[in-house]
Specification:
CATH topology of chain A: Rossmann fold
Distance between the termini of chain A: 13 Å
Helix content of chain A: 40-55%
CATH superfamily of chain A: P-loop containing nucleotide triphosphate hydrolases
CATH class of chain A: Alpha Beta
Largest interface: A-B, 23 and 27 residues
Function (chains A, B, C): Catalyzes ATP-dependent phosphorylation of adenosylcobinamide and addition of GMP to adenosylcobinamide phosphate.
Largest sheet of chain A: 7 strands, mixed
Radius of gyration of chain A: 15 Å
Keywords (chains A, B, C): ATP-binding, Cobalamin biosynthesis, GTP-binding, Kinase, Nucleotide-binding, Nucleotidyltransferase, Transferase
EC number (chains A, B, C): 2.7.1.156, 2.7.7.62
Strand content of chain A: 15-25%
Oligomer: homotrimer
CATH architecture of chain A: 3-Layer(aba) Sandwich
Number of strands of chain A: 7
Catalytic activity (chains A, B, C): adenosylcob(III)inamide + ATP = adenosylcob(III)inamide phosphate + ADP + H(+); adenosylcob(III)inamide phosphate + GTP + H(+) = adenosylcob(III)inamide-GDP + diphosphate; adenosylcob(III)inamide + GTP = adenosylcob(III)inamide phosphate + GDP + H(+)
Organism (chains A, B, C): Sulfurimonas gotlandica (strain DSM 19862 / JCM 16533 / GD1)
């Protein structure tokens, strides 16, 4: 069973994805943290995330090779988040094709996975190319993930509405 | 009864919120205008808003202390809009905690209130800190408001879809 | 029958709009391409669009006077996309009133038309006036189109949800 939670920044998608996986798991789920680069602002967000999830999860950290981590894991996995992973992959010069391949392998696994992804494409088209490339990649990969997920939830103001 | 209308810029959320409160009020509702700073562009928007609402509302203006205004008001109140109020609170150096406290007090009132709020978190993460802080505050406060509202509507292209 | 597909950048709205019009047309539909300005990045997008639609459509190109093109066309028309047309109209100094008039004439035609439009208003309010004006026009015109459409679909992560 695969599930996608998509929504804007601070829409509440992460909290709702956590509640969702906890409610649906009979074993302790794994929290796969993809964050690689940490500044003060990030640290604060991460600490808030950690505080939110308490002891309910086992936490693993991997910024790039997430397929390996998920494949060797027996429990349901919360990928938090795909957007940060895309960011890391860009930074390390991986191509969109590389990202598609990695995600396709993950989507073929017979495991319970919940993906969290930032919706970044509903603002004005930005004037710098890197942002545009990121939006394009994020959009295409979100379509790829959603097409293989059993359930997709869109979150606004803390309310997750099932759209698939 | 508390209601939230959330949506992007020029999505039609304000017009629909006005129609909603007018349809559901037996007394003349109050239009609580939170705008503090007015330049030529804002003036034009405000005039368009005023023209839209005609004589259907009694208008009160308060950029910051909205709890006091709402509490001492007997009629249903349309808060137009929460985003501008957040903006004013930021400008006057109030903290997110201050904003949460003010909103929490409002949400505990036994009155009919319709909140209008801009969805600002579905674009690319902006590179300036003030914008990021605003998005964070807006997202957290929209979650707070939505959690206490009986009905929440998301508006796109003038169409308000109930999501709670 | 008139239909609007709205969604963010790379949300999948174009592909879904194409599938929708192909499924509902008994004659070969017309693909009305509104793109006027083409740089390398645009060229790549356009080629991807062309590859996606194959021989299923007859393609016509018109960046500005789309009413004339649609009126003289007998087959269902996919307007791809309204956002690019707004952009062109801005560039050539047409006013929002001009755009409203052109669209109103189109919406009064007794023809099958599918409109594709970018949702650009759910990010932070941009600090340059041209972007704000574009968002305002896009929002107002999307309301105009949606109000006259029989069906409106919002697309996220490749999933189009009917909202009207």
């Amino acid at each position: 069973m695969k599930t996608l939670f998509i929504g804007g920044i601070k829409s509440g998608k992460s909290i709702n994805a956590q509640k969702h996986i906890l409610k649906n798991s009979i074993t302790k789920p794994t929290y796969l943290a993809t964050t690689e680069f940490v500044d003060a602002g990030m640290k604060e967000r991460i600490d808030a995330h950690i505080e939110n999830r308490g002891d309910d999860f086992e936490t693993l950290e991997e910024p790039l090779k997430i397929y390996e981590v998920i494949k060797t894991n027996k429990n349901p996995v919360l990928v938090e988040c795909v957007s940060m992973w895309i960011n890391n992959m860009f930074y390390h010069s991986f191509s969109l094709e590389d990202m598609k391949k990695e995600l396709t392998k993950i989507l073929e696994l017979n495991q319970d996975i919940v993906f969290v992804l930032n919706d970044v494409g509903s603002g004005i088209i930005p004037d710098n190319k890197l942002s545009r490339d990121f939006i394009d990649a994020s959009g295409k990969l979100s379509q790829l993930i959603a097409s293989e997920c059993d359930e997709v939830y869109h979150t606004i103001a803390g309310i997750s509405t099932r759209i698939k």
